[in-house]
Specification:
Low-confidence stretches: none
Largest sheet: 5 strands, mixed
Helix content: 25-40%
Number of helices: 10
Shape: globular
Strand content: 15-25%
Distance between the termini: 38 Å
Radius of gyration: 18 Å
Order of helices and strands: EHEHEHEEHHEHEHEEHEHH
Strand order of the largest sheet: 1-10-9-2-3
Number of strands: 10
Mean pLDDT: 92
Length: 288
């Protein structure tokens, strides 16, 4: 395994990190406005107690960020959203201002959502990246090597020829430690970030409160603007560990009830996402 000095697979210690002059932040966390039961207030209180920043990145939703802005809890809050693209990838967008995030959501995401609020919207990855260019924001691909058996993750989509490899040049960063992924997936993501000269981010992809802060992105920054500049400049350090299998099972059990009411639109989106690969497979078989 190649060693990367800015990617550390260890439990993060926020006090130690701050003594080094770095701000740690969990850049991938979900709340009850998405497929989680975690209240925004509880997430902010825990982040404040642990001394970390937070990006609430609900699926195709911004209600959690709006709710956080109303709370009187001082936490470095990075306005974010996780957009599920129609062709597979999950794109984490981090905005320099909440106003820009809300404008982007209202003009580009809200009207393209399906009935299932947590599943893919009706925009492909290039369309989403085109539309974000009018805003000051950072685009990072979540869990870029994807989940097993699902067409998620930009590398899985490139390998399946759903997306061209030029997509990497349009991203600012890759999520190199995702708490919900296997170590092997995260190591591949680290290699991809290095190969394509992209920034590094990390987050828990947490849905349960106790998961918050298990993976952090660290930057020499005092403000949200400086933090995002550090991601773009590729000067961040990512520290964290993946959740054990038992904890992943617990999280999956907790998330499932949020998805069951939308089983039909979720399955429809999965079919649409995988249809190009099915067509190529059938055509190759007929030609063969």
């Amino acid at each position: 395994m190649r060693y990367y000095k800015d990617i550390i697979f260890e439990k993060p210690l926020p006090e130690t990190i701050r003594r080094l002059g770095l701000l740690p932040a969990d850049l991938h966390f979900h709340t009850r406005y998405s497929d989680s039961a975690t209240r925004v207030r509880d997430a902010l209180k825990l982040a404040a107690r642990r001394g970390i920043g937070l990006a609430i990145t609900d699926h195709n939703q911004v209600g959690g960020v709006v709710d956080a802005g109303r709370q009187k809890i001082r936490v470095p809050l990075i306005p974010g959203i996780e957009v599920s693209a129609n062709d597979g990838p999950h794109i984490l967008l981090y905005f320099y201002s909440t106003a820009d995030l809300l404008d982007f959501y209202r003009h580009h995401i809200e009207k393209n959502r399906r009935n299932g609020p947590f599943t893919a919207i009706r925009l492909d990855t290039p369309d989403i990246l085109d539309r974000r260019e009018d805003y000051a924001c950072i685009a990072a691909e979540a869990h870029p090597c994807g989940y097993a058996f699902l067409n998620r993750g930009v590398q899985r989509c490139v390998a399946g020829r759903c997306i061209g490899e030029e997509v990497f040049s349009r991203l600012d960063a890759l999520e190199v430690i995702c708490g919900g992924m296997a170590r092997s997936h995260n190591q591949k993501a680290a290699g991809l970030a290095a190969a394509h000269g992209l920034g590094r981010t990390g987050g828990t992809d947490g849905h349960l409160l106790h998961e918050l802060g298990g993976v952090v992105t660290c930057a020499g920054a005092d403000t949200v603007e400086e933090f995002l500049d550090a991601v773009r400049a590729r000067t961040t350090v990512v520290i964290g560990r993946e959740r054990p299998l038992v904890e992943k099972a617990v999280m999956g059990t907790a998330v499932l009830p949020h998805h069951l009411p939308y089983a039909v639109p979720i399955l429809q989106a999965r079919w649409e996402q995988n249809l190009p690969r099915i067509k190529r497979f059938v055509q190759a078989h007929l030609n063969g």
